[in-house]
Amino acid sequence: MYPAISFYFSTYKLFWYLYSMFCTLLYFNYFGMMLVSLSSTYQVAAVWASFSYTMFNLFSGYLIPGPRIPVWWRWGYWICPTAWSLKGILAPQYRDIGTVITVNRGNTTISEFLGSYLGYHYDGLGAVATVLMAFPLAYACVFSIAIVKLNFQNRCDVGKDIRGAWSVKDGKATFVDVFAWLSGFLSSYTTFPSPQLPRRHLRQINVMTGAEKKKPNASANAGGKKKEVKKETGLGLSIKKDENFGDWYQEVVVNGEMIEYYDISGCYILRPWAMSIWEIMQEFFDAEIKKMKIKNCYFPLFVSPGVLQKEKDHIEGFAPEVAWVTKSGDSDLEVPIAIRPTSETVMYPFYSKWIRGHRDLPLRLNQWCNVVRWEFSNPTPFIRSREFLWQEGHTAFATKEEADREVLEILELYKRIYEEFLAIPVIKGKKSELEKFAGGFYTTSVEAFIPNTGRGVQGATSHCLGQNFAKMFEIYFENEKGEKNMVWQNSWAYSTRTIGVMVMVHGDDKGLVLPPKVASVQVVVIPVPYKDADMQGIFDACTSTMNALCEAGIRAEVDLRDNYSPGWKYSNWELKGVPLRIEIGPKDFANNQVRAVRRDNSAKCDIPQANLVEKVKELLDDIQKSLFNAAQEKRDACVQVVKTWDEFVEALGQKKLILAPWCDEEEVEKDVKARTKGETGAAKTLCCPFEQPELPEGTKCFASGKPAKVWSYWGRSY
Ligand code: 87F
């Protein structure tokens, strides 16, 4: 490039050219970064950039020579970085050229012309060099201060990119972070970039921290080779649970590696970290229902419109949510087919075929599958998605008593999933007439509560369908006396919503908090390298610690990655919610012990290797119990007993879980819904708890003033 622009070639001129160009590239970069760091959005930065670059042209001395710029505007010339670049490039190139040229009909030399007309003087080049270096330094400083102090990167989407660009804990950069990043940025300039570098650059910066630089052995791998320790983008969470619950939730499920967003709204990718939780619950529930002699089966995903119509009365309200396949390739299907939103209509025609006599009963089937409900209101991962995983049980009995018994047995299993596995307290109860499954006889449910939003959430349902579907689908059997009777049916389901409730209840500002019973990794073992330590010994101790735990049936993993610092690993496993972290450093290694750190309360303790398994089991049990107790305490603190409408409205405004005496009339519930309708949704009954407090004679319904018949939980809900 240099000879191509016909510059005179000498070492001196080449040096000036390269130096000026280097400073110029640098200040343009830092200037751009500075604008972004000073602006709340990219758009604002872009407006400033286009203004600034126009000024850079205008005052560069190229369009209007410096000495010709009106005196009162000349300060613009002095502060314009491009003016200094031109000085640094052109003065050394041409100031010693004595070639005579004709300008305005007079003769002059090039050097003379450059000095008098353009203002490029030979003397003072030292100042030019200094100023040229001062610009990038100044811009970089302003950038650093803006990043640390203004922290705009946390206030906008753009920030996610910017945050991704360096190691930032809790979403906030420190000066050390920013300078480390800037030095990485600079060094990428002076090394040959690989084709992938620019993108990687935006996402993560690998630098050795000061502390690690002092520990040359820190990252020595098994082979003794030294490797650079990545202080990776330990992004953690940028939003606090109490500050913006909705955004916090979205962030925690993604950064905690549970969910990935998909390009169809309301559909999400369940990553292994979430799927493993589902599988653990599935394993428990599947074994329990098998003990009850319930068998698994699988019915097709598609429903023909004719069968769906059979259930028309009940499906009416649900119809808008049914998704249809209307085409194959380019041609329209002769008859569109529905995708199952639930499987009553898919299964019951075959129940009618398979059930003939009393010996065919009970028929107890379950299927693990996906269903599709094309929801229109605000999709939320796990809680409300258009496709989700569930189990649906469909059973048929000869008598109502058998059906009633099963409804409660299944409900108890759902309660155990929530309380024993997910460490979430739930309330068992019966749904109101308005809230029950319209096709059923009665509906029972387990109800959880999310204190942060003050919303109830139906955790799982167990319906007694009575004989409604038997009538519709002609499911009859002949009893011992040869009489034709209709069967009694139940249906029950819990879904991946359970996982969302768990995240909402236990998660904190550091990320997910997984109860040990459902965590696919219950214990993570992390080596803590230290200067001059016997790293191989520590690594081996970590591996054997993991092995000992695994042999004892504890789900343990060891994190021997040598390109991440221990601190980064701690945050990463905390973000993912692993219940217990075990650290092994030189001191622990020497003392034949490990250090255990709990995720739920950060409590630390040292455990001798000799009673490792026993103590870890104890700790995991304790974490499970503490999580449940903490969740119960929090939930109970939100329960508010109200007796009057005014108290009800006040409690609703305070995001309480309301327990109120109620007349149990559908019209009154409709009325409460209408009167509380607002932006955040109306209040409704969650359930009438099986455990009823005493209802003294003469107690009035809080809403209608009529005599109360039951205590009922009320609230807004998901
Ligand atoms: C959406 C579209 C179409 C719920 C729907 O709870 C139909 C329906 O029938 C629908 N949403 N329901 C009720 C589901 C009842 C029931 N089905 C078996 C359960 C448990 C499992």
Report on the structure:
With 718 residues, the chain is of the alpha+beta class. 42% of the residues lie in helices and 19% in strands. A five-stranded mixed β-barrel has the order 11-12-13-25-24. A five-stranded mixed beta sheet has the order 18-17-19-20-21, sandwiched between helices. The protein has a three-stranded antiparallel beta sheet with strand order 6-8-7. A hairpin with a 2-residue loop joins strand 7 and strand 8. Helix 1 (11-38) packs antiparallel against helix 4 (81-94), helix 6 (125-150) crosses helix 8 and helix 12 (272-291) packs antiparallel against helix 16 (400-421). The radius of gyration is 35 Å and the shape is elongated. Residues 315, 318, 321-322, 341-342, 344, 373, 392, 437, 461, 463, 491-493 line the site of ligand 87F.
